[in-house]
Amino acid sequence: MNLRLTPQTRQIIEVLLHKPLDWKYGYEISRQTGLKSGTLYPILMRLAERQLLETDWEQGEPGKPPRHIYRFTAEGLQFARANHLAEPSRSTSKTISAESFAFFGVRIR
Q1: CA dist., res. 69 & res. 91, Å (int)
Q2: Which residue from 23, 40, 41, 101 has the highest number of Cβ atoms inside 10 Å of its Cβ?
Q3: What residue stretches are annotated with the Transcription regulator PadR N-terminal domain (predicted)?
């Protein structure tokens, strides 16, 4: 798949990989990455157009507008895991534990 993995795209992938089966709000992703909506939403739309993200609308409480939610498709999760582990984002400052790698099927010696 031909997808440009910018540092911003990698940040989004990292956030989504934290709990890959959970739905996430765009606002939640924005807060965790520090990306502004003008950067975040076009990336989310490109990932969805390439069938890497599943999107849906969550109906909120009465009187509140529905919110768009995102999570990986099976193909998207496979793509994200492969690309995230191959070249981690330079913006990541957190240490990844051996248990985290084990979750992705990677052994650390």
Answers
A1: 24
A2: 40
A3: 25-78
How many Å apart are CA 108 and CA 57, to the nearest integer? Answer: 39
> Where does the pLDDT of residue 3 fall: very low under 50, low under 70, confident under 90, or very high at 90 and above?
confident
Q: Give the distance from CA 62 to its chain's centroid.
A: 29
Q: What 3-state class would DSSP assign to 91?
A: coil
Task: Calculate mean pLDDT across residues 95-103.
Answer: 47
List of residues 6+ apart from 58 with CB closer than 8 A: 23, 25, 66, 67, 68, 69
Identify the DSSP state of 19: S
User: What is the per-residue pLDDT for 97?
Assistant: 47
Q: By the 8 A CB rule, do 33 and 8 touch?
A: yes
Domain 7-103 has CATH 1.10.3720.10: no
Q: Across the strands, what pairs with 53?
A: 72
